Amino acid sequence: MKFVKFLLGLCLATALLSCSKENSKDGSEPLLEVNYNNISGKWTLEQVNGKTLLDGTFLELSLERSEHSFEIVTNLDSFQDAPHTMSGTYALSISAEQGAVIEGKYDHDSGFWSHDYVIERLSASSMLWIALDNPELTQFFTRIK
């Protein structure tokens, strides 16, 4: 459960860090400002610390802009054929020192995410989250259409 919380927090932080409208590294897709509107939608976790998830495992993150709510459907910390759902609320904050930071709280007794995350390289199709307290922890998400 803590691993999932950690992953979610990392993802959110990465999205917020990206406040630039410059082109992405390969120049194919412009970067977006990190705000509630631009991160809203359904995302899938593709990589953790640069490594692709194991076959059969997944984490899908839905971010809703108006209520600042999230829902996670995952099997990362359970049997592959028994995914579970977690929900709660999240908040974005933007600062010159840290960039765009996302933090979250679960609806039930689980409390806060394990980490707050800086959101970087937000584009229409992907975003990177970096744990604020552990920059070596990264999560890369792609948008589900």
Helical region count?
A: 2
Overall shape: it is globular
Q: Mind summarizing the main beta sheet?
A: 8 strands, antiparallel, barrel
Q: Tell how many strands the DSSP assignment holds.
A: 9
Question: What is the structure about, briefly put?
Answer:
This protein is mainly beta and 145 residues long. The chain is 14% helix and 43% strand. The protein contains 2 helices and 9 strands.
Overview of this protein structure:
The structure is a single chain. This protein is mainly beta and 145 residues long. The protein has one domain (2-143): Lipocalin (Beta Barrel). It contains 2 helices and 9 strands; from the N terminus they run ααβββββββββ. It has helices at 2-17, 36-39, and strands at residues 41-48, 51-52, 59-64, 69-74, 84-95, 99-106, 117-120, 126-131, 134-143. Strands 1-3-4-5-6-7-8-9 form an 8-stranded antiparallel β-barrel. Strand 1 (41-48) and strand 2 form a beta hairpin. The longest helix has 16 residues, at 2-17. The protein is globular. The model is unreliable at 6-24 (pLDDT under 50).
